[in-house]
């Protein structure tokens, strides 16, 4: 009987994990199913580009996984029962109506990669009036709204992190006729080195972006945002980028999760409460160097996908568990299409003095984006030895169970 592996979510992490498992395991031994709500792979790290009016090449999942042995199931995950080992999916019907119908999938091993969406932080008016770029639907909605703005109208990006900085610079470069501002709780680029922060301010000045530093937004209305100091900032469009919230499905299960709903995993990405469940990417609480949680990002997600896939394959085939530390090397920030910032960091993500800036940094960031998409879109292009699944897979004695982060 085949070992049933179900992967939930086909973003960077889910697609990478499914493809890596297909390379590692014999097709005769496993039934690999990849579940995703959309038919295409979405380059989430380019949503600010999509929102600003650029077109992204479609990447149909059917083409990506053709001939890999991975079965695709398009549908939205509506329930997860980790005690019965079942997933309920609202999949498109086959009766010609296109109406979704519930299907129940059983699994022996589950890879949870449902990721995260935008987080309105409970700020009044945000859900009703703000725009987000955490996914394709939100980016397209913002794109349409920006296209309808007249010259001189104000756009306020709320959030001074990587997403906010990239959104503000992309919009300002694409629409220099708009009045773009960014509201940040801290100082502009205060996570960067001195060199990196100087360059960011230089780009903001060049693009005409107003930075409202040490500014907390407490209310969002249709035509303005209000700060904690009581100041009203005009905003024909408010773009909300203050962080992410994980998919709520895990919190409704008996999985051990954090207060924010992230699944607690060990160093092989396996749930500490349910060993047949692995969580990767934004959905997982992953500990890095000095036992600090790794941030939600593509830079975190893809290595966790490698770790989970290799750990699953090792446990099923009696191989050696991976021993690759999870760490950071740099933060790659696009500042429009012609400028960028590569901030080098310590293993635990603290900025060091070294940073690349300007056109070369923009090209570097573009290569990173293309590389991440290429890796997900070509899951088994590289040769690999497929191993047979043991009838009763056990971790061999002496394997480093606590091996990864």
Automatic annotation (TrEMBL):
This is Oxidoreductase. Keywords: FAD, Flavoprotein, Oxidoreductase. Residues 4-309 form the FAD/NAD(P)-binding domain. It comes from Streptomyces variegatus. Pfam families: Pyr_redox_2. InterPro entries: FAD/NAD-bd_sf, FAD/NAD-binding_dom, NADH-Q_oxidoreductase. Transmembrane segments: none annotated. Its cofactor is FAD. GO terms for biological process: aerobic electron transport chain. GO terms for molecular function: NAD(P)H dehydrogenase (quinone) activity. Belongs to the NADH dehydrogenase family.
């Amino acid at each position: 009987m085949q070992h049933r592996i179900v992967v939930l979510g086909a973003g960077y992490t889910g697609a990478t994990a499914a493809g890596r498992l297909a390379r590692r395991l014999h097709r005769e031994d496993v039934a690999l199913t990849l579940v995703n709500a959309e038919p295409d792979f979405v380059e989430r790290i380019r949503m600010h580009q999509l929102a600003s009016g650029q077109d992204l090449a479609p990447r149909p999942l059917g083409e990506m996984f053709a001939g890999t042995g991975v079965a695709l199931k398009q549908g939205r995950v509506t329930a997860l029962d980790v005690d019965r080992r079942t997933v309920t999916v609202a999949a498109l019907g086959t009766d010609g109506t296109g109406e979704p119908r519930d299907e129940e999938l059983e699994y022996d091993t589950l890879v949870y990669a449902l990721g995260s969406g935008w987080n309105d932080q409970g700020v009044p008016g945000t859900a009703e009036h703000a725009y987000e770029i955490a996914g394709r639907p939100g980016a397209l909605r913002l794109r349409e709204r920006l296209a309808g703005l007249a010259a001189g109208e104000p756009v306020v990006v709320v959030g001074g992190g990587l997403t906010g900085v990239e959104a503000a610079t992309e919009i300002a470069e694409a629409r220099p006729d708009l009045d773009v501002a960014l509201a940040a709780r801290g100082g502009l680029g205060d996570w960067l080195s001195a060199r990196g922060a100087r360059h960011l301010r230089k780009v903001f000045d060049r693009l005409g972006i107003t930075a409202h530093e040490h500014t907390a937004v407490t209310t969002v209305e249709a035509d303005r945002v209000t700060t904690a100091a009581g100041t009203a900032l005009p905003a024909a469009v408010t773009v909300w980028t203050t962080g992410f919230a994980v998919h709520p499905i895990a919190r409704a299960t008996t999985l051990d999760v954090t207060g924010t709903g992230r699944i607690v995993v060990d160093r092989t990405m396996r749930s500490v409460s349910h060993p047949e469940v692995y969580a990767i990417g934004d959905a997982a609480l992953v500990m890095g160097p000095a036992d600090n949680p790794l941030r939600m990002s593509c830079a975190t997600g893809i290595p966790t996908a490698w770790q989970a896939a290799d750990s699953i394959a090792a446990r099923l085939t009696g191989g050696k568990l991976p021993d690759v530390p999870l760490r950071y090397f740099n933060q790659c920030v696009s500042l429009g299409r012609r400028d960028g910032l590569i901030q080098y960091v310590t293993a635990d993500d603290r900025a060091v003095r070294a940073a690349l800036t300007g056109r070369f940094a923009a090209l570097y960031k573009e290569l990173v984006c293309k590389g991440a998409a290429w890796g997900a879109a070509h899951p088994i292009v590289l040769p690999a030895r497929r191993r047979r699944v043991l009838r009763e897979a056990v971790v061999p004695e002496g394997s480093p169970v606590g091996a990864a982060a």
